[in-house]
């Protein structure tokens, strides 16, 4: 009888340890959410000299992107985002020829990729409302091909790269099990900018390197997830101060600004 009681106690103890282990394993399991989407946007690029607009690219841009969120069993969330985008925009500016400076209209092609990663803290304000402050880093790289026409008489290429730190605030409201309204606002602080100008197409140098000035930029997004469908509107800016003049080629990048308004439509998993 004594041995039977010991055996029963041993079984109970092992079962209890197994149950606790399974509980911790379930709690330790990370939750991964993802969104895959296409986006359509109105993109406007402007350049200024002495406060006066001298160049404008404007038109629709297209792209695809994805978000991934990893939520460990704590208040933290790890987030990542990546996008590919392209467009052939209307160019409205000037050209310099032997007769002076005259207005010129053409096309400018954009082709780029961008991405970011951050760490967020989830603050459950109520059962249906949360806030999500976060910090992270990001990158944006694109090619700007000017006079993208058949002859490219005045065409040359600019290759841009900007690295930035970011600080944002997100929020969400759960309406029911299948509907969530969400939004975010992000401040981006430029840390490094580099621009390569390739003028070999018009007989110039192929590698002029400029450093557009660092300025903060801003982006915001608001939308809704309904079951597996995600729809949102967004606004994004890029800001660059005038670069120093390249002493060898007497070239510089004017003050430049970009404003983007768009819509994202995709699926959430």
Please give a quick description of this structure:
With 269 residues, the protein is mainly beta. It has 1 helix and 13 strands. It is elongated and about 70 Å long.
Summarize the topology.
Blueprint: H1 2-28, E1 31-49, E2 52-71, E3 76-97, E4 100-121, E5 123-124, E6 129-145, E7 157-174, E8 179-198, E9 208-210, E10 213-214, E11 217-226, E12 229-241, E13 255-268
Antiparallel strand pairs: 1-2, 1-13, 2-3, 3-4, 4-6, 5-6, 6-7, 7-8, 8-9, 8-11, 10-12, 11-12, 12-13
CATH domain topology: Lipocalin
Radius of gyration: 26 Å
- Calculate the terminal CA-CA distance, rounded to whole Å: 56 Å
CATH C-level class:
Mainly Beta
SSE string? HEEEEEEEEEEEEE
Q: How many domains make up the coordinates?
A: 1
Number of helix segments? 1
Helical/strand content category: mainly beta
Q: Tell me about the biggest sheet?
A: 10 strands, antiparallel, barrel
Outline the low-pLDDT stretches: 1-29
CATH architecture: Beta Barrel
* CATH fourth-tier homologous superfamily: OPCA outer membrane adhesin/invasin
Query: How many runs of DSSP E, i.e. beta strands?
Result: 13
């Amino acid at each position: 009888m004594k041995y039977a009681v010991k055996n029963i106690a041993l079984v109970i103890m092992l079962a209890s340890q197994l149950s606790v282990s399974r509980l911790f394993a379930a709690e330790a399991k990370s939750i991964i959410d993802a969104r895959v989407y296409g986006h359509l946007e109105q993109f406007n690029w402007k350049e200024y000299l002495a406060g006066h607009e001298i160049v404008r690219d404007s038109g629709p841009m297209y792209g695809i992107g994805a978000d991934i969120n990893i939520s460990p069993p704590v208040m933290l969330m790890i987030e990542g985002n990546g996008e590919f985008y392209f467009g052939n925009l209307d160019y409205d500016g000037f050209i310099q020829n032997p007769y002076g400076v005259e207005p010129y209209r053409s096309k400018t092609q954009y082709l780029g990729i961008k991405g970011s990663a951050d760490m967020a803290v989830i603050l459950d304000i109520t059962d249906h409302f949360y806030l999500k402050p976060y910090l992270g880093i990001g990158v944006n790289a694109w090619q700007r091909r000017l006079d993208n026409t058949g002859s490219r008489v005045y065409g040359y290429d600019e290759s841009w790269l900007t690295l930035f730190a970011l600080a944002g605030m997100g929020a969400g409201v759960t309406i029911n099990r299948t509907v969530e309204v969400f939004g975010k606002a992000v401040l981006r602080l430029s840390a490094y900018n580099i621009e390569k100008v390739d003028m070999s197409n018009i007989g110039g140098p192929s590698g002029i390197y400029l450093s557009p000035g660092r300025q903060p930029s801003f982006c915001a997004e608001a939308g809704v997830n309904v079951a597996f469908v995600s729809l949102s509107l967004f606004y994004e800016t890029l800001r660059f101060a005038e670069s120093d003049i390249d002493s060898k080629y007497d070239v510089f990048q004017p003050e430049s600004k970009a404003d983007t308004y768009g819509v994202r439509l995709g699926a959430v998993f």
